[in-house]
Structure formats: C-alpha cells, structure tokens
Amino acid sequence: MASLRDAPRTPTSSLRDAARTTNGTSGEKIWLALEIGNTRLHWALFRGEILDNAWNTEYLPESIICQLAQSQTLDDLLLTISATQNKTREQAQEQTGGSSPPSPHLPTSSSLPPLLLASVVPSQTAIWETYPNVRVITLNEVPLKGMYPTLGIDRALALWGAGKTWGFPMLVIDAGTTLTFTAADANQCLVGGAILPGLGLQFATLGQKTGQLPLVEISKNASLPPRFALNTKEAIESGVIYTFLGGIKDFIQAWWNLFPNGKIAIKGGDRTLIINYLQVLYPEIATHLIVEPNLIFWGMREIIKLL
Ligand SMILES: Nc1ncnc2c1ncn2[C@@H]1O[C@H](COP(=O)(O)OP(=O)(O)OP(=O)(O)O)[C@@H](O)[C@H]1O
Ligand SMILES: CC(C)(CO)[C@@H](O)C(=O)NCCC(=O)O
Ligand SMILES: [K+]
C-alpha cells in the first residue's frame, strides 16, 4: 500500500525543502516518520511518498536523542537508533513479520532527514525537540471534519490515512496499549469512537491490582482459551479475551447498522492475535477487515502532501 494515490501538491514547506537535501539514489526526498505511542516508538523511512521501511523500537533515552541530533549522515542516525535496540528489533520482527531498522547501507546523505513526529505522550514529544529538523504534527493539520480538541493525534492520523487509502465511511480499530474505535462518515467527518484498556493493559491490571491473580501473558499464536475455565489462568484469559472480541464484534455491528457499506481497518500491536481469534469466532467479520499496521504513516504521508 505504499503506492501513490493522488498527485503530490506543490511542495512549499520547509520540511519538504529540507528533504531535498537528503536525496536517495532515486532522487526521492528521504524523511523519517515517528509515532510515539504509549508503549513504544513506531518508525518509518520514506523515500518521497514510498514507505521504504517501518520498524518499532523502545523509547530512546534522552542522551541517545541528543546523539542522534549530532549525526552527520542518515547512516549514522540509523546506526545510533538500531544500536540501542537489538532486543526490541527482534521482538518487532517476530510480532509483525515485518521489518527492522533499515541496515545502514543507504545512500550517504549530506544532512539529517527531516523527522515528522506525531505523539500521544507529551513528555516524550518534549525530548525530541533537540532533533534539528523535527516537525510535530498537530490535530489542526488533519483535514478530518468535526474533530474534538482532545482527540488523539494517532487516532486522527490513522483514520485519515485509512480513509484516504481505502475510502470513507471508515472505522479504524487500534489494538495497542488501548483499544480504540474511531470512525468517519462519507463526508470525512468524525462520527466518534470509543476508548478502553487494550489486551495487555487488561491482563496487567488484573495482575497488579489484586491479591491473588497472576500476571497472564498471551503469546501471539495462542489458541482460544476454554470459555468456562477450571483454573485461574484460563479464567482470566477467557474473561478478557471473549469480552474483548465480543466488544469488537458489537462495535462492528453497530458500525454496520449506521453505515452498511462502511469499511473497517485494524492496526496495533495486538492486531494479529485479534484477527486470528476473529477468524475462528466470527469469520464473517474477519474477512471484512483491512489489516494494516502502517495506517498512521499513511496519514502522515497525506499530511505532508498538504504542507
Ligand atoms: N514487541 C512488542 N513490544 C511491546 N508490545 C507488543 C510487542 N508485540 C506486541 N505487542 C502488543 O502490542 C501492544 C502495544 O501495541 P502498540 O505497539 O500498537 O502500542 P503503542 O502504539 O505504543 O500504544 P498506543 O496504543 O498508545 O498506540 C501491547 O499491549 C502488546 O500486547
Ligand atoms: C486513546 C489514546 C491513548 C490511544 O493511543 C490516544 O489517542 C489519546 O491519548 N487520545 C486522547 C483522548 C481521545 O482521543 O479522546
Ligand atoms: K494519562
């Protein structure tokens, strides 16, 4: 889905101007996209409007971010990021079946690529301000209509990216730290949505806030637990997983009641697990889902065209 959809508009912004100084072999402008989630960082390297590579890392220490700002080349920068992240990189690959930080064999650039940043963690946003060429995306730059002021930028960008890519009406389900539903109608106007604790947070809360419940961890290939469980671990799994999936099904049905031809896209670190479960429990729903981890990057790419 990294292909171009609309013709790019005339570049006018400093971001795009700056990007010209970091050309790849193809002459495309190289830029980095960073989404700061509540659990970890999500990165993408773009060449023009083509997503070259996407990967996840842990939060970086402030000292490393300062070091990044001193990088002379893109290669240096990517090396600094990946040097801190071997463990996370493997986990990310395992989880997404996808890519790791690009190995530093990219064309050497004459300066650092611009960094387009979207964050739902203000304390993290602040420490990226040392990066020389950073641009923080704000909600008013997302052309969705009817947004409320405290809507998360990740929700707005993912919805915008999904709608511009596959069309509206669009419902985005983000199964990350939190589970969110975010929808827009055919006029690209926010319908609204919902926020609840994600799978990991539900298990963690039960483990942390009770006297007798263990911390349950679910592997991404786990099969469905018995519905009526006869031990504590499976009772927790049953309770969390069946209500989670039942909740997703219920929101999807409500969505289809409102918009019978409404589209649905799903993203987030738990998407694979959820899709696997939905295929078993509600195959009719599973077949209708667009599974796309990079929705926020598609949203950013759309925004950059407007800058
Ligand atoms: N390698 C991993 N590291 C962390 N979480 C992972 C990993 N693989 C899968 N997950 C799952 O992904 C969830 C976090 O999802 P994701 O990475 O989309 O979160 P995030 O984008 O940082 O948070 P947010 O919900 O704020 O966007 C965790 O609850 C966990 O269950
Ligand atoms: C809901 C989360 C945490 C999901 O990442 C984020 O989008 C956020 O902090 N949102 C602000 C509240 C809202 O979207 O209504
Ligand atoms: K908070």
UniProtKB/TrEMBL annotation:
Molecular function terms, GO-annotated: pantothenate kinase activity
Residue numbers binding ATP: E35, I36, G37, N38, T39, R40, L41, H42, T177
InterPro entries with a match to the protein in the record: ATPase_NBD (IPR043129), Type_III_PanK (IPR004619)
Binding site for K(+): D174
Compartment list: Cytoplasm
Start and end residues of each stretch annotated as Disordered: 1-22, 87-109
Cofactor annotation: NH4(+); K(+)
Keywords: ATP-binding, Coenzyme A biosynthesis, Cytoplasm, Kinase, Metal-binding, Nucleotide-binding, Potassium, Transferase
Comp. bias (Polar residues): 10-22
The enzyme's E.C. designation: 2.7.1.33
Annotated binding of substrate, by residue: Y148, G152, I153, D154, R155, T232
Catalytic activity: (R)-pantothenate + ATP = (R)-4'-phosphopantothenate + ADP + H(+)
SUPFAM superfamilies reported in the protein's UniProt record: Actin-like ATPase domain
Tree of life domain: Bacteria
Cofactor details (free text): A monovalent cation. Ammonium or potassium.
This protein's pathway: Cofactor biosynthesis; coenzyme A biosynthesis; CoA from (R)-pantothenate: step 1/5
Active site: D154 (proton acceptor)
Self-association state and partner proteins as the record states: Homodimer.
Function field: Catalyzes the phosphorylation of pantothenate (Pan), the first step in CoA biosynthesis.
Similarity comment: family membership: Belongs to the type III pantothenate kinase family.
Name of the protein in question: Type III pantothenate kinase
